[in-house]
Each structure stands twice: as structure tokens, then as C-alpha cells.
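Session log. Operator J.P. requested a structure for one protein chain; no other inputs attached. Running the standard single-chain path with C-alpha cell output.
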Amino acid sequence: MASAYVFTLQPTFTQGLILGQASILFLLFLVLKYLFFDTDPDRPYRKASYPPKVELASSEEDLTAARVDFSDLDTRREEESSEWLNVFLQQVLEAYRVKLRNGLTGTEGDEIARQRVEEFANKMRPAGLLDYIKVHSVDLGSSAPRLSRARVRRELSLGSDPEIDYDMSYMDTASISISTSVLFNYPFPSFARLPVSLTISLSLFASSVRLTPPHPNSPHPTITFTLPAPHSDFTLDIKTTSLMGSRAKLEDVPKVHELIQHQIRRVIMEKGTWKVVLPGLASVSEVKEDVRMEHKLAEEAFN
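Structure written below.
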């Protein structure tokens, strides 16, 4: 009759195998219980005392990006790459150029763009000061503004909204050639008119730009572009050729160049804030009402 005992005073191979497996299971139980599991339900929660391992890249730019501290995003933060945004802007402007030309190329597209610019110019002209504006040619350009040196400006301790400042430069061949007449209404209406022909072309526009993302708690969230950024100036370099007079011609009068440049600068300073409406979160009419109320409150505070 075979023995019913597993263990004997002289260990066998089967006894050693069972003892080894039991030892491994017992050690595994101890490791899990005392190293990973928390058996005290009253013990307060504690954060890990060691930081997660971060694989740093070899290049200096990647090392800088890996060391970003989101609790101190201010003007001293390392500059971020804006190349992806430059590609985006190039495509946006190219889409507008194609749209203005009605998708046509060559002289047909040029003529459609000229007509649309002429229509817009006469819609905006001061009727009592200028006669009908004739647009002779328009060059929509081929380049786009380039952004660089992105800087996040935010102090989380103050609870302020994040803002992103960029340096922008724009060099292109954009130009327009027009002719009109300056109206003199004294001593009586249409007393005289001074024919003027102008060609205005852009050489350089450089400025800082501030982008303000939408605030989550705003009733009508928008993305705001401010040009130039607050408390900063901009560079405007344009070339103008002018011809004034009917019989006696005045050519390239410096005062005309100064006047045109001053007016362009004034419009940029007054109209240099754009709000982009986010689909599904606000309507254009709602945002216009918000802007109107902001201007009203600003005027009341100023007065």
C-alpha cells in the first residue's frame, strides 16, 4: 500500500518542488503587501517623493522645451517656434487672394480683383472730400506676415488671462495705383477740384502682435488679435509716387507721402484690434454688441 504522506524525513524531488513554489508565493505576497499596497485606511494620501523620469532630447532647443515650468509663464520664458503658424498664415492669405480673383489667373483674375478693390474703396471714401476713386491696378502680393519669438505672458498667481506676444514682419510686393480728385467746397460746393494720381507700395511692416485666447467663462468667447501689442510701436515703410494738378503738374510731393503714411498709421492704431468669433459659441452680432459696450464704457471712464 502506498504511503499517504507527502513530506518525509528524507526530502524527495516532489517535496523540494512544492517547497520552492510555496516560498516564491510567500515572498511575492510580502512584496505586494508591504511595498505596493497600503493596508492602513486611516493613513493620509501622500504624493510620490520622486519625480517621473523624463527623457530629454539632445538638442538645446528640445532640452529647453522639456524644462518648461507651467507655474511661471512670463516674459522670461524661452521663445517658442512659430513656423507652423507662418505656414498657416501663408495659406490663409493665399486663400483670400484666390477668392478676390474669383479663382481666375492672369489678366482676368487681375481685373476682377481690381474691380472689387475699386468698389470697396468708393464705399469707404469720404464723399465730401474725394471724387470717385478710379483704381488702375492692384498687386495683391505673394508673401505673408512672418511671426517669430512667441512669448507667453501670464502670471497664474494673479489669475490673469494668458496672452501670447509675437514679433511680426511683413515684406511683399503689394501695391495699388489710383486716381481721384480732391474736392474744394469753399466758398461754395464743388468750387474746384485737384486731380491726384497715386501709387502706393509696401516695403516693410514690422510690429509686435498680441494674441489673447478665449476666456472659458466669457459669455461670448473670441480670439483677439491686437496690432500693435499694447505699449509698443510699429514700423511702416511704404513707397509712394504722386502726381497732382491738371495742367501744371506737381510730382512726388513729400507732404503727400507724409499725409498718406500718417493716415495709414492712424487707421492701424484705431482699428488694430480684431476679434475672431468662435463657431457655436458666439455670433457676430453678439460680439459687435460687446465691442460697442466696451467702447462706451471706455468713453465714460475717459470723460
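Operator note: DSSP finds six helices and nine strands in the chain.
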